[in-house]
Amino acid sequence: MDIQQLMMERVSYRGEFQSTPVSREALRMIMEAGLAAPSGCNKQTTSLITVDEPELLEKIKKSIDPPICETAPAMIIVLTRRIYAYRQKCYSIQDYSAAIENMLLTITAMGYQSCWYEGHITDSDNIGRKLADILGVPGDYDAVCVLPVGYAAETAVRAKKKTFEERAWFNGFGKSGERE
Ligand SMILES: Cc1cc2nc3c(=O)[nH]c(=O)nc-3n(C[C@H](O)[C@H](O)[C@H](O)COP(=O)(O)O)c2cc1C
User: Between β-strands 46-51 and 74-80, what pairing exists: parallel, antiparallel or unpaired?
Assistant: First the structure.
């Protein structure tokens, strides 16, 4: 799959997963793609924990309410640390966002499905901290996102997107950019 096709292929998959385990080799490749992402001033503020051990996975899933990823054979927990790049500038959100997109594209390229679950675990009930505590994460790291990984058991639903012309232009806001 070329990179353009890959980006168009990726969707947020929220359906059931097949029980087929994801190999450690595949999981490591996905994590390496995440860690290869750019980061502001190369501060590398993103860390990752993948959970594939069944008992621990159940414990993690049980801590998330409303439930998500219930059938996923593996989950990647994305951690971030607020390290300042310079003066008052902290790019940790941008850093983990770049890492997540790299991982989502790698997951798609390997034929697996995933979804960027951030709202679910960072809303006011602080599920992220619960997950972090289960995994022994020190207090200066926040768990901000979970990515399930597995083969889809259902058909992925494609989100409706606005047209190109509604959101992107050439040579000025709202311009069609047609060449004379
Ligand atoms: C920052 C961020 C947080 C998100 N959090 C959630 C979430 O908590 N739960 C969820 O089901 N999807 C979540 N998503 C996925 C979006 O809902 C999804 O990307 C969007 O609907 C577009 O669909 P697509 O990813 O299939 O293109 C999140 C995406 C982003 C970028």
Answer: antiparallel
Decide: 119 in ligand 1 pocket, CB within 6 A. yes
Q: What is the spatial distance between Cα 77 and Cα 83, in angstroms, rounded to a whole number? A: 19
Query: Ligand 1 centre and the CA of 66: distance in Å?
Result: 15
Instruction: Determine the pLDDT at residue 27.
Output: 98
Spacing, Cα 177 to ligand 1 middle (Å): 31
What are the backbone dihedrals phi and psi of residue 167, each rounded to the nearest 5 degrees, phi first? -130, -10
Q: CA-CA distance, 124 to 91, in Å (whole number)? A: 22
pLDDT, averaged per 10 consecutive residues of the chain (180 residues), comes to: 93 98 98 98 98 98 96 98 94 98 98 97 91 98 98 97 97 85
118 pocket-lining for ligand 1 (C-beta < 6 Å): yes
CA of 179 to the centre of ligand 1 (A): 36
How many angstroms separate the CA atoms of 153 and 171, rounded?
A: 44
